[in-house]
Specification:
Layout (H helix, E strand, L loop, with lengths): L4 E3 L4 H7 L7 E4 L5 H6 L7 E4 L10 E3 L5 E4 L4 H6 L1 H6 L1 H7 L5 H6 L2 H6 L7 H7 L3 E6 L2 E6 L4 E3 L2 E2 L6 E7 L5 E8 L10 E10 L2 E10 L6 E2 L1 H7 L6 H12 L12 H21 L1
Parallel strand pairs: 1-3, 2-3
Antiparallel strand pairs: 4-5, 5-10, 6-7, 6-10, 8-9, 11-12, 12-13, 13-14
Helix pairs in contact: 9-10, 10-11
Length: 285
Amino acid sequence: MTPFELAEPRTLCEAVSLLVSGEAPARAISGGTALMLMMKAGVFQPARLVSLRRVEMRHSEITATLNGGLSIGAMATLSALARSVAVQQAAPVITQTLKTLSNVRVRNVATLGGHLAHGDPHMDLPPVLAALGAQVRTLSPTGERTLAVADLYTGYYETMLADNELIAEIVVPPQSGWRAAYMKVATRAADDWPTLGVTVALQMESNVVKDARIVVSAATNTPVRLAAAESALRGASLDKAALSRCGDAAASDVELAADAHGSSAYKRELLRVYTQRAVRQAALT
């Protein structure tokens, strides 16, 4: 790695100001589980690293909101998220997803804000949070703004975040009446990067789907809502025919990327099958 300056601000506002570094590139680092690997590989060569480890403790807090949602500080670790009773009660699909998200060593240091800001399409939580309707609150020298997680990603490793903008908080709205499930396909260990990830959130009335959100990831450059598959479910009873229509719609609704984990045709068949499985799992939640 090339030499770099390490800054350790005590507030998030100070951290944002340190990211404005003129011609010398600067990058924020929280857990560093992805950034350090990319620096060692020479992908990033920042002149300054701005560590977020010493910023206010409130940015690591996980709290239930009065309306039944969640407020999660961006510096909350994935392990803290997995252990949180508030998360388990308000959005159990997040807790379930974390069981196979990498390994405990990574989860102990990786933060939710960094997980989302990294922009890697193979991350597990972005499609889950997108399906739950979550938002991020960000901070930059020009002030704060709120973005839907579903709108955060613009391309492969690309986000809506400016170079001097940091995620401060993740807000998950109340999930009353919604059931959700996340399923992923990994070609090696269960906690490996997903080859395909599918999140389904359903509003049910008896056995009839009132509303649906379906998000695919990993096989796409960004998390993608599957509008045709959602439409195939709305107003339908969850029988074999409806599930088949939903799976077919999902498989024809999005462009899938071929890579070392499989061809686009292979992933399309995975998407057809796992969308149906995720719908069934969500309905049983």
